[in-house]
Amino acid sequence: MNYLVKHMTNEEKYVEKIISMGYSEDDAKDYVKTHKNSNEAEINPDLGLKNEFEIKLPPVDESVFASSSSKILLTSERNANPYAKGLALLLLIGCIAGLLNGVDFLSPNSGMNKPHNLIHSQTINAPEKSAIFLGTITLKDGSPAENFSVDIRSERGGNHFTTTDSSGKFRIENLTPSYSILDIAISGDSAYGVSHRILLNPPAGFEPYGFTQIDITFPDKSEFGTDNGTGVFWIDYSQEDALIDPSAATIYKIFGYAFVGLASLGAILSIIALNTGNLGLIRSASGLVFFSMGHFWSSCCIGLIVFLLTFLIPKNEGF
After folding, report:
1. Low-confidence ranges of the chain (pLDDT < 70)
2. Cβ count near 133 (within 10 Å)
3. pLDDT of residue 69
4. Domain 115-240 has CATH 3.90.1640.10
5. C-alpha to C-alpha distance for 163 and 151, rounded to whole angstroms
6. What is the pTM of this model?
7. Domain range annotation of the chain
8. N vs C: which end of the chain shows fewer Cβ within 10 Å?
9. Of the candidates 180, 199, 200, 196, which has an alpha carbon nearest to the alpha carbon of residue 238?
10. Mind giving me the DSSP string for 177-246?
């Protein structure tokens, strides 16, 4: 819309008017300077200026008043990317697998994962005569088992023999880390003995020897069965799980707590990502799930796959 404004001595009023129409101050001043000497002389009564020359103002800059359909979405108004929801659900499955793996580690004497497997894998390439076995043998009443024979039988390391001292303690060196059979016996009018399967620790890191310490309680004579006329009473425990150093089981439990913690934190991030579709949370959760391992490396696979997929799925405003 075009209309006229009287040329006033004070050009600032023209400039102010033109600026209000959507033009910059510099453009307004240039326009007034260019048109103030024009010969157009139509009076605009709305301005109340009747005695001086007028100039025609430029058209209104309509772009200033144009509306936009764009909308700033609040977090609560955003719709989560459906692909992101799927990845978050997949991560929750990985979290469950990691949590079960951690609980399994916390029960070293049961379940699929046992410290025996880890220790044995390290003994395969361990040097010979690098294991030391020591411990204490006590009777059921708590008294030390003095002068009991202690015999280690191993396919890799041969046989080694010693006896307990007055405190029931023993120590055998130059053993080879591996599964071995431990025989403990006491002789007299009749012989009483037990057999256990044990797993000797390999050296840790750059240590020259691996130490295995196991304390054993010798059964009461009433627990032994018949001697079949041989004068030898024996209980064979070698078919049960091998005895290991309790400290190895403790380290295994620490790993279990770590896996449970990683899986739990990953689950929290996954649930938040399920509601928000946040890409950063999904990637963070996938890293936590990866390190929770899971049985048969299931959590590792899920975490890695989800992390890679976050770079392939399309983005939308939910992200």
Report:
1. 1-11, 22, 35-80, 315-319
2. 24
3. 52
4. no
5. 8
6. 0.62
7. 4-64, 80-107+250-309, 115-240
8. N
9. 196
10. SSEEEEEEEE-SSSEEEEEEEEEPPPPPTT-S-EEEE--EEPPPGGG----TTSSEEEEE-TTSPPB--H
